[in-house]
Amino acid sequence: MTDGLNTLKFLGLAARAGSVVSGFDQVTSSVRRGQAELLIIATDISRNTLSKLLDIGSKEGVKMPEAFSFGTQYELGRAIGKPDRALIAVTDKGFADKLSAMLQSMINKEDIH
Questions:
Q1: What are the tens digits of pLDDT across the range 32-65?
Q2: Domains detected in the chain
Q3: Region 60-74 average pLDDT
């Protein structure tokens, strides 16, 4: 769980740097404008919200950024100093690349065990 905690802390750092948008409307707007570098989707996101997000890529033909399912809505919101959040978009490439590497590392460790 230490990796997960470090990832949440780094996500908070990105938020404090102004490199994160959250909430369905802000995230989808960021995706449509091509500003989202990485999406973090809460593990307990509702099917309806997830379906609406996926429709942006399939029905609207918008290129979706790399995405990871990570953390609960409570954990993601708390990490960025907000109420529960189901969706977070990281808009800075540097932060997005580092978070992607951290999340990928957690996935790879799970595969080993």
A1: 999 999 999 999 999 999 999 999 988 888 899 9
A2: 2-112 (3.30.1330.30)
A3: 93
Note the pTM of the prediction, 2 decimals. 0.91
* Paired sense of beta strands 66-69 and 87-90, if any: unpaired
Evaluate whether 56 touches 87 at the Cβ level (below 8 Å).
no
d(CA 50, CA 89): 14
C-beta of residue 41 within 8 angstroms of C-beta of residue 85: no
Higher pLDDT, 98 or 58: 98
57 or 98, higher pLDDT = 98
Residue with tokens 């500003």, as numbered in its chain: 35
Cα angle value 84/69/112 (rounded, 5°): 135
Q: 25: which 2 tokens?
A: 């409307």
d(CA 4, CA 26) in angstroms, rounded, equals 25
**What is the rounded CA–CA span in Å between residue 96 and residue 84?**
21
- Assign residue 85 a region: left if phi > 0, alpha if psi is -120 to 50, beta otherwise? beta
